[in-house]
Amino acid sequence: MLEAVSTSNELETPPWHENPIVEWLLAEAWNITDPVILTESLGAYLVEFGFPLYRLRINIRTLHPQVVATGYTWMKSTGKAEIFSAPHSILQTSAYQDSPFAAFFENNAGGIRRRLDVPGLPMDYPILKELQEEGATDYVAMPIYFSDGKINAITFAADRAGGFSTRELEQLYGMLPILSRLLEVHALRRTAETLLETYLGKHSGARVLDGLVKRGDGEDIHAVIWFCDLRDSTPLADSMPRAEFLLLLNRFFECMAGAVLDHNGEVLRFIGDAVLAIFPISAPEEDEEDRCKSPESACRSAVAAVRDAMARMNEYNRERKEQGESPLGYGIGLHVGDLTYGNIGAPERLEFTVIGAAANEAARLEGLCKTLKKPILASGEFVRMSSDAWASLGEHSFRGVREKQEIFTLSDPEITPNITEEKTGEPR
Questions:
Q1: Span 423-427, mean pLDDT?
Q2: Topology given in CATH for the domain delimited by 20-199
Q3: Cα-Cα-Cα-Cα dihedral sign, residues 154, 159, 160, 163
């Protein structure tokens, strides 16, 4: 006789993996798109499953010009994860050199465990004393290996008497291969965003990452155009060792491009010793973050960047004077116009930038700074949209432009001629 088969809907689905953390990572965590949320979700899951987790920290080394690693720290008390970006300089500090992370990254340690509730055991890392004072009873650090061999790290702190059990440590160790692949996906995305933002700019990089990758991909925009140039760079380069000239050039770019970026502009290109940047003007229906909303606000941002750049250059020139060096001259041209914003170049080597007559006119305008002996010049199109005080310098011709244009400079008392002198004392 056949046995009756139960049709109860109350039967639980049996686990398909012996390690519940691995099952959770594969079934749920794989579709989490943010590493902060992934860290928070992992911490919450471990506590819900019965782990005595007090603190969880994940450290991922990054490819970034300013940041060497990014840390995500989850605390049970808040249920939230905080993100921390470590600068490259941290590698020279005792905070790093005396940490378990240095043991992984520098000495290829296989794992670290320190019981914090047993008297007399070594407290060889400063973090252990801090956690012990907070009530932690156990500390475990494990390396996380990416597919390219890069070593990262994860640490767990417990708050239960006796710390983690052997079974719990086996489960934590067993989940690492899956967790490392999830974290690597997030890290690769972050690296791509960082490199595109660093080499193309924030908005340009985002557009490329969103799919504007073919030659000809782009859009027509209306923008304030900033073009600036370092005066006398050729004789400077000829008279200085290349390393020193590179330091000078980078300091000039910090003053100029740094001011543009700090005032919501987009640096598009470094052309020798010149900088091309824009302050985009949004269409009325657009509501993008980090973009200027109107012609007036774009002009305000550009003028604020000009004043900031001048203040930075004044400070730099004061330093140069104290060192017995002559001040650096520069010119900045401001214009407004229509541009095509997108990919140009050969099919296999593209550049995301702007093209159009307005960009050329901005460069020609800046070239007049030397002739008119003014550091800042603006076109009539720009001045008509600006709320700042401007003084007319009359009509002048642009190279390659038939009709003369009225040119303006800021009428502030501090805007003085920006002229360097030859060794003979004659103005250049």
A1: 33
A2: Beta-Lactamase (3.30.450)
A3: positive
